Amino acid sequence: MTDTFDAVAELLSARFDIEPEIVSMTATFDDIDLDSLSQIELGTAIKKKFGVEISDDELAEMSTIGDVVDSLTGKLADKGVTV
């Protein structure tokens, strides 16, 4: 896995009490019991932790943790930041 994936998995585990072993790139929000309100909270937590924003609309279009990781990786690269 990537450092960005590991950071997102750690964030999900710490913020939403999700067991790390169920988090994978192919896991859906449903797989990890993350409802739409929790997805909004995830966006806020990402902004606080990484300093980049994934909007509520962007998150609503995503279906897997891999989508979140890919988006975050791209946004961090645009800012010249690595995790």
Automatic annotation (TrEMBL):
Chief location: cytoplasm
Compartment list: Cytoplasm
Top-level division of the source organism's lineage: Bacteria
Pfam families linked: PP-binding
Pathway: Lipid metabolism; fatty acid biosynthesis
Annotated InterPro entries: ACP, ACP-like_sf, PP-bd_ACP
Keywords from the UniProt entry: Cytoplasm, Fatty acid biosynthesis, Fatty acid metabolism, Lipid biosynthesis, Lipid metabolism, Phosphopantetheine, Phosphoprotein
Segments forming domain Carrier: 2-76
Modifications made to the protein after synthesis: 4'-phosphopantetheine is transferred from CoA to a specific serine of apo-ACP by AcpS. This modification is essential for activity because fatty acids are bound in thioester linkage to the sulfhydryl of the prosthetic group.
Signal peptide limits: none
Modification O-(pantetheine 4'-phosphoryl)serine occurs at: 36
The protein's role, per its UniProt record: Carrier of the growing fatty acid chain in fatty acid biosynthesis.
Protein family: Belongs to the acyl carrier protein (ACP) family.
Record-given protein name: Acyl carrier protein
Organism field: Actinophytocola glycyrrhizae
UniProt gene name: acpP
